[in-house]
Amino acid sequence: MTDAPVGETVELDRVLLFSDGETTQVGSPTIEGAKVLATSQGMVKGKKIIVFRYKNKTRYRKKTGHRSRYTRLVVDRVVMPGE
After folding, report:
1. Which residues lie below 8 Å from residue 71, measured CB to CB, with a gap of 6+?
2. Model confidence over 41-56: pLDDT tens digits?
């Protein structure tokens, strides 16, 4: 997903599974006509990932890491086909 400004509505149209507590619909691969409407809360950084490379008997050690960036979304509504 690309960077969405804060407060912008985002439409996700590839819904794989839907359940309302009583019935469950599973797509093959997706549910046609279903979509999720969400509001962007901006970019956030994920948990830090540590990458440690090591070779024994050669004194080679290298420690690096990174933090991936994600777009935080708040789901407003799930629209099923026929609604």
Report:
1. 1, 3, 4, 40, 41, 42, 43, 44
2. 999 999 999 999 999 9
